[in-house]
Each structure stands twice: as structure tokens, then as C-alpha cells.
Design brief:
It is built from 26 helices and ten strands. With 533 residues, it is an alpha/beta fold. It folds into four domains: 126 residues, Response regulator (Rossmann fold), CATH 3.40.50; 143 residues, 2-Layer Sandwich (Alpha-Beta Plaits), CATH 3.30.70.270; 106 residues; 101 residues, Arc Repressor Mutant, subunit A (Orthogonal Bundle). The chain has a five-stranded parallel beta sheet, with helices on both faces. Strand 3, helix 3 and strand 4 form a beta-alpha-beta unit. Helix 5 packs across helix 6, helix 15 packs antiparallel against helix 16 and helix 15 crosses helix 19. The longest helix is centred in the N-terminal third of the chain and has 41 residues. The radius of gyration is 31 Å and the shape is elongated. The protein starts with a strand and ends with a helix.
């Protein structure tokens, strides 16, 4: 309902306006009848109003004086209609100067009122839509500046832009937080629309805690966050709002998405504290280093770098012989050897009497195993990217159907990694990328996943992902996105199709997501790109 205020010093006129039309039927509610401009002014300072009808000649404060005071002091964004018995251009000119919506002459008819109401409804709807677009563009440019900071290619203007656009930015220290859900194994089977929907559901729940700080939550930072992650920039001033530190604040976020745990397994990887926004890349790297702890350790919802990554601790058992046996079994793709080595490893860690495996024991032994597996992959193919191998290890360790930290969990991971190494041995890149290039060039708009292509061409999906990174310098998702965005850019210049139509034609069913990806690659919105070119 539009909130309407009527202002006139003549009681008969004031009452006449209030009954001239059925305001409720027109979607309006008269919230105030004021007898002069000063009374209206005082009301506007403390109350929201959408539309004001004000007489031009009144004691204490005229309609024009009321309009002038409201505009100059910025106390209300209400639309103003000045009502006058004078057909004098000077009055109309004064009304126009202070952005009055209409200048109506007495006697005012019902049609005139309804016409004004419909105009205001259209303006408000247009303002809302425009504001949504502005916010989307602002967020996309904010993401672009954060990408430059994470890449170490930022300038002072990029730092300033991020600080200006982070709500309630304070001078406290910063942390980069990865919010992970699912794993490659489960999420590769889902379409872009399904993943966007999952992210939206998680964001909606997190927003209940974040409130006006939701602009610190990012659904996608191309090249830095996985398709199955969100990210969040924390600073100390946020924790102080709750009188707590980062652990308590993230705990509140975790509680907000607790009901989604069974479905997606949402967890938070909190990077180490840095004392300046320009050092955010260090916090990002430390958050990424927590992935193996999420993958191999006992299941937790929150991992904090300073708490989970400890160095220099002694008296923790490293089961080198058992781990070497496991590595050998994986290298030879020998399931029996993998099973025997894992059983022996767990017997030694747990001891003859049984008991719980300490997180520190898991950490020490996991780090040793990961180092050896990385070395093994590089030995077989020097071109492999170690960061990509780490991503493969952490994501594929989140196998569906077995408890993290259990012997079965580790065995299943061993089988998967053995298959991965076999793909390296076969040097599967020969001819495959050429065929895939041709397929993507024509079928880019379809729901294509890396796992689908890997199955079609009989190659391990993670190794195929590495081949893309090596050949093109970007991930498969970004490679596909680049094709789609470049094709969209061509359509924008060659056709007069709407932005939403172009997005749909190149494979994006969510226009906002398409606009964000377009800005990330082209540096401007699709509309601006079309206009500039």
C-alpha cells in the first residue's frame, strides 16, 4: 500500500480529498492529514510516506516551503504533488525546481488523483528494479577488485574501493573464510541452475545473521573459489557487534545453516588473521590449506587456521612404514595392499586397546601422506599443477557413503587416487583436448560437466581438469564460461535481443549470474558493452 499524506489548511478541502476516491481500492493508505506545512514537516521527519498532496498556500509553512525544506534537508524521498488555485507559471516553476511530481489546479478531480497514483506506482517499481541492477553491478565490481587483491595486482584505488563498499568497514584485522558444501563427487552431477539454487538457499540462511553485512558474502570469485564454495570477508568489527571473536561469529553463521548439514555438509574454513586488506591473499591461501583437514579429519563444521594447523608439536606418532606401504599400494593400484596398509595404520594409531584418533595424529600423518602423493603425481607428469592435485585430494577425500576419518574412508580415497595416477601414466591428453574443444565450441549452451566429458572420453575427471588448466591457463568451468561470455558479447553486437534472451541463448538461465560473469570477464555490464561498441 502506498502511504499517502494530505496537507491543506481548509478542513473542507482536506476532507473532500480524503473521500474523492476509494484510496484503498487504488492501493493507498492515508496515513496523515495535516493542516499546514509545519505539521507535515514534523511528521515526515519521523515517519515514512510515499506520496504527499500539499496545498500551495497555507499558514505557518506553505506547500512550496515544505517541499523545499524536505528536499534540501533530505528528510524524505516522498513524491510531492502541489495543489494550487493559481494558474501562475511562477508557482509551477518553483514546484519544478524542487522536483515536484505534479502541479495540479483546483478543483482536483478523481481522474487526476488516480493518474498521479498510477504514475507513482510505476516510478516506485522502476526505482526498485533500477536499485536491484545497481546493487548487482556494484557487487560484480567489488568482486573484480577483490580478485585483483588476491592476485597481488591491486593498487591503492582497488583497496579503497573495497573498503568503501564493505558495509560498516572497520579498522580491525581481516580473515578470508571459505564456506564449503558438498564435494566434486556429488556436485559435478548437478546442473548450473541446481548449484545456483543451493548457493541461494545457503545465502538466504546466512543473511539472517549477516543482515546489512550480507555484501561481504560472495557466491563466486572466478579463479579463486570453487563452484561448490561461497566466501566471506570477516573483519574484527563484525565480531565486536556480538561482543565476541571470529570463532563465536562463525559459530552463529554455522548455526544458521545447520539444517542443511545432512543435505550438503556445510563447513567453514577460516583463514589466518591479517592486519591489512592488502594482505588478504595470505588469509585466502591459509583457508585453502584447511581443505585436507576437512577431508581427512573428524567431521567438524568450523576449521580455524590458528587452531587446526599447528607446527612444532612433538610426541605425535608418525606411522611412516604403514604410510609408505599405503603409498606403494596406491602407486601399484593394488587394492589388497591398500586395504592391508590402512588396517595396519589404524591399528598402530589406535593402539591395541582401541580409542579415538586425536586430531593432531590425523594431521601429522595426513600431511606426510599428501606430500608423498603430490610427489608421486609430479614424478609421473611434471606438467601437473600441484595446487590442482591438492584440490583433487581434498575434494575427492569427501567420499559419499563413509565417515570421514574412518578406515573405509581412507581406503576409498586410495582407490580413487590410484585411478587418478593411472590416467597420468596413460598421458591421456593426446587428442582428447582437441576433440573436447570442438564439442564445446558447438554445444557450449548445454549442461556440460567435467565429469560427463571425462566419462565420455574415458579419462579421470580431475586429470582432465588439470589438462585444461595446463593448456588454457584456466579451469574447465572458467574455460566454458569464457566461451559462453564471448559468444554473448557477439550476440549483443549483432542482434537487438534483450540481455535475458542473450543469457538464455548462451546457457545461463539466471540473468544476474550471467551479468556477474560478464563483468568479471569483460570489465563492464552487457548493456554498457553493447553501448560502447
Amino acid at each position: 500500500m502506498l502511504k499517502v499524506m494530505l496537507v491543506d489548511d481548509e478542513p473542507f478541502t482536506l476532507e473532500g480529498l480524503s473521500v474523492l476516491i476509494d484510496w484503498q481500492e487504488q492501493g493507498c493508505q492515508i496515513v496523515k492529514k495535516a493542516s499546514n506545512g509545519k505539521e507535515a514537516y514534523d511528521y515526515l521527519k519521523d515517519n515514512e510516506v510515499d506520496l504527499v498532496f500539499a496545498d500551495i498556500k497555507m499558514p505557518v509553512m506553505t506547500g512550496i516551503e515544505l517541499l523545499q525544506a524536505v528536499r534540501e534537508e533530505e528528510i524524505s524521498n516522498a513524491y510531492f504533488v502541489i495543489i494550487s488555485g493559481y494558474n501562475d507559471f511562477r508557482y509551477a516553476q518553483a514546484a519544478i525546481r524542487y522536483s515536484a511530481l505534479e502541479y495540479l489546479l483546483k478543483p482536483v478531480g478523481a481522474e487526476g488523483l488516480i493518474s498521479v497514483i498510477n504514475t507513482v506506482k510505476g516510478r516506485i517499481e522502476s526505482d526498485v528494479n533500477t536499485d536491484d541492477v545497481v546493487q548487482d553491478v556494484r557487487k560484480a565490481y567489488l568482486t573484480q577488485n577483490i580478485m585483483l587483491i588476491l592476485a597481488g595486482k591491486h593498487k591503492d584505488k582497488h583497496i579503497d574501493y573495497v573498503k568503501r563498499n564493505l558495509h560498516r568497514y572497520g579498522d580491525g584485522d581481516f580473515r578470508f573464510v571459505n564456506i564449503c558444501f558438498g564435494s566434486i563427487n556429488t556436485m559435478e552431477e548437478k546442473s548450473d541452475d541446481e548449484i545456483i539454487d543451493i548457493k541461494s538457499r545457503i545465502c538466504d540462511r546466512l543473511s539472517l545473521v549477516l543482515g546489512h553485512n550480507t555484501d561481504r558474502l560472495f557466491a563466486d570469485i572466478p579463479g579463486y573459489t570453487d563452484e561448490y564454495e561461497l566466501s566471506f570477508i570477516y573483519s574484527d568489527d563484525l565480531g565486536s557487534e556480538y561482543g565476541s571473536d571470529v570463532s563465536k561469529y562463525v559459530e552463529k553463521l554455522s548455526e544458521a545453516v545447520k539444517e542443511l548439514d545432512d543435505e550438503f555438509g556445510v563447513s567453514f574454513l577460516v583463514g589466518k588473521r591479517v592486519d591489512d586488506l592488502s594482505k588478504l591473499s595470505y588469509s585466502y591461501s591459509s583457508a585453502a590449506a584447511l581443505r585436507p583437514y576437512r577431508s581427512f579429519g573428524q567431521k567438524k563444521r568450523i576449521y580455524i587456521y590458528e587452531d587446526d594447523v599447528q607446527v612444532g608439536e612433538v610426541n605425535v606418532m608418525l606411522c611412516k612404514d604403514e604410510l609408505d606401504g599405503l603409498i606403494s599400494g596406491i602407486e601399484l593400484a593394488d587394492k589388497d595392499a591398500i586395504n592391508a596398509s590402512v588396517d595396519s595404520l589404524f591399528d598402530k594409531i589406535l593402539g591395541k586397546e582401541g580409542g579415538a584418533i586425536s586430531e593432531r595424529a590425523v594431521s601429522i600423518n595426513t600431511n606426510y601422506m599428501i606430500f608423498r602423493l603430490l610427489h608421486l603425481a609430479v614424478e609421473m607428469d611434471e606438467s601437473v599443477n600441484q595446487e590442482e592435485v591438492m584440490l583433487y585430494i581434498s575434494d575427492n577425500a569427501l567420499l559419499h557413503g563413509s565417515d570421514r576419518g574412518s578406515s573405509m574412508h581412507l581406503k576409498q580415497f586410495g582407490y580413487e587416487y590410484a585411478e587418478y595416477l593411472q590416467s597420468l601414466r596413460k598421458n591421456a591428453s593426446r587428442g582428447i583436448l582437441h576433440d573436447i574443444e570442438k564439442e564445446l565450441a558447438t554445444n557450449y549452451a548445454g549442461n556440460i560437466t567435467l565429469r560427463d566429458l571425462a566419462a565420455k572420453y574415458y579419462v579421470n575427471s580431475s586429470y582432465l581438469g588439470q589438462l585444461f588448466k595446463k593448456r588454457y591457463g584456466v579451469s574447465f568451468k572458467d574455460y566454458l564460461s569464457n566461451i559462453r561470455i564471448n559468444e554473448a558479447a557477439s550476440l549483443l553486437l549483432k542482434t537487438d535481443k534483450k540481455i535475458s534472451e542473450v543469457a538464455e541463448e548462451v546457457g545461463y538461465h539466471d540473468t544476474d549470474y550471467f551479468i556477474n560473469r560478464f563483468i568479471a570477464l569483460k570489465g563492464c555490464t552487457p548493456s554498457k558493452y553493447r553501448k560502447n561498441n
